[in-house]
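Reopening this one. Same input as before:
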Amino acid sequence: RAWAGVMHGYSDMNTLIALGTSAAYLYSLSITVYPNYFLGIGQKSLVYFDSSVMIITLVLMGRLLEAKAKTKASNAIHELIGLQPKTARVERDNVEIDIPIVEVVHGEVITVRPGEKIPVDGIIMSGASSIDESMISGESVPVDKKPDDIVIGGSLNKTGAFKMRATHLGRDSVLSKIVHLVIEAQGSKAPIQRLVDRVSSIFVPFVIGVATLSFFGWWIFGEYINLPTSPFIFALMIFISIMVIACPCALGLATPTAIMVGTGRGAELGVLVKGGEILEKVGKLDVIFFDKTGTLTQGTPEVNDVIVNPEAGISKENLLVYVASLEKASEHPLAEAVVREAKKNNLKLGEVRNFKALPGFGVIASLEQKQMILGNMDLMVKNGINVDGWVDQLEKFSRQGKTLMILAVSKNIVGVITTSDVIRPHAKDTVDRLKGLGLEVGILTGDNRYVAGLIASELNITTVLSEVLPGGKSNEIKKMQAKGLTVGMVGDGINDAPALAQADLGIAIGSGADVAVEASDITLMTNDLRAVVDAIELSNQTMAKVKQNLFWAFFYNCLGIPIAAGALYPTFGILLSPVYAALAMAFSSVSVVSNSLLLKRFIPKGRIC
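Same output, byte for byte:
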């Protein structure tokens, strides 16, 4: 490797080792071949083949230990790859057969039994189960799955049996994408590593210069000091010791080993970091914005209030039946919330006729031979329905961040149902932990100011940017960046993708849209918002390890080079032999790798494990 460096015009740690051991070997070879010549000029016939062999052995032993440590560091990838089952039980010609995973085709029906690993990504067709997705998402609690739910290849089926349809195979599977991202991240360089590379390119020639000056200094002036050997032999040992102990192996290992272990540990926690440079960005964050719907909130509204007009002569159950019957064919989240509420109360829905959807307003239809209008205030006014007695009450609900569904029967308002989105579990804890890390937290949403303000007050967030269109989100982030702030963004939807790409650090909730995941720097494979703080804490810990490693690598060299140069010999008689220099160099490399491996024990501060 040293020779390859010479041929290509660069020097590295191999150059130092090669020069030091070659000097000892060539001198010893000369003594062996021409002993009389050296005796004639007053040199003793001492050879140092043993030093060359010992140094090379110790260097190789150090590299062996490094390789073993690196293998431990990349265990996350091996574990992820090992999750993939080897076979799948598929239905072909109405017969179940076991086939290799590679032979599964898109759309094929697969049977999964209790205790088996799910072979590929897919959708449950029939049956239900509790599935352990911990190695994918980092979430230790099994997830209940039912028909139409998505299942991930490599996760463990705990209880029930089910049939699924294969949807994503090979490189398109979630597991393959995770492995690819982790490999890319572990192979990437952080900006600080590029600085280390530049320092190393200057450091090696500097060491060669110091070793050469020390050699000639001791050779020329050594006769004035009481040396154990001739000045030339003493100077040669000094030269070799400097070249060996100054080998910047630890410097070269400081950054990549920490990044390798850190990103691997992240994969175990369900946090995918797309590159080493991302880890360095995290430590520079000033402010982090959250999208509201689907990120801070569940994205699935729930019914809050069922208010009946006392003059209408109907019950709350009747009102729910009417509204749910009108909305049962709709896929709108608000409609689904009302239908869920009706089903929860075991209410039987009626059949509607003359159904007409009015996007942005509501619906008009006939039910029980009555014309019904369901929608917002604008739809009521547009159809000449008197809302005077409801204005104050509806305004109050709006200020509470609730969405209104007004039902009018035969031109009279009979009741109102309000819905609101539910804040995700641990959202408050997440915001508090982020503030504890010194970050400003804000909300960036397209929702109205009342809803955004309510969520912000519950989570103790002061910075709120509401009623912002998708394109406007990235512009708002640009404005922040123009002030010199480093901005992070957390989102999940397609409308968040421009903002995630614009932000200095984009974090995507893994359950969100693919385009949001692609545009982000960090992907969370879990819906638990605490993973946002876990990702930041892990990144900070990883960069802390990088800096610790670099400190110790430079410390070893700064301490070792003067001792190897004989600075302590005239006063204290302390001299570092080449063999001990090789041991010290190997120890420095192993200690740096061992320090990086401590990241495998990383546990987020806010988790109870």
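So the earlier flakiness isn't reproducible anymore. For the record, The mean pLDDT is 81.
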